[in-house]
Amino acid sequence: MRQIVLDTETTGLDPRSGHRIIEVACIEMENRRFTGRHLHKYVNPGREIDAGAQAVHGITLEFLADKPKFADIVDEFLEFINGAELVIHNAPFDIGFLNAELDRLGRVPVGTICNGVVDTLRMAKELHPGKRNSLDALCERYEIDNSSRTLHGALLDTELLADVFLAMTRGQNSLMIEPDTSPRPNLDADGAVRERKPLLVRRASPEELAEHERVLAGIDKESKGACLWLQKSETETA
Using one digit for the tens of pLDDT, what is the confidence trace for 190-203? Predict the structure, then answer.
């Protein structure tokens, strides 16, 4: 199963008002494993960027001045996603913008060349009804480090979304014996490898260890010596 995790950044909120894509990023997975292949493009929209949108992603028109038009990247983009299932957070937003760009060029809609779309926002709402289900909220819920996400960016967001998607659907993969050891792209906006921060290990304090021992002693007393934790500890130290 080939899947493409996809995200875009845009000049505004509504393609019907003439807003355009300014960044698109895709990360490839096969059978829930990262292949190491990705596609990342900045796009010159040929129009102004709304102040509200720029405040979200931080991309300026000056930065995009020398970037290619969508027409210049469309063939490479369509080839990359062809035949794959797309994984997108709030899919109607991104698909709407992609189809608007494709329609301007007389190309077929995304749905005719990809093998379906998974909307992780809709999935999250079904799994966690009544809770916040933004990408940041899901990273927090599934303990995924998003400390590098000070602004929205399509490439970083696809990497985070890929980790979130795998965490959300891990139960569907429970029969797999081998863990996923494939390399994650872990790239910055320029395509360079970005080092992940080491995991924080928080060890128990002497006071917490003493309280732990006190609780175990109480359990052992109430159970008349049947505290399995203490029995296991004694076996390991024997």
Answer: 555 555 555 556 67
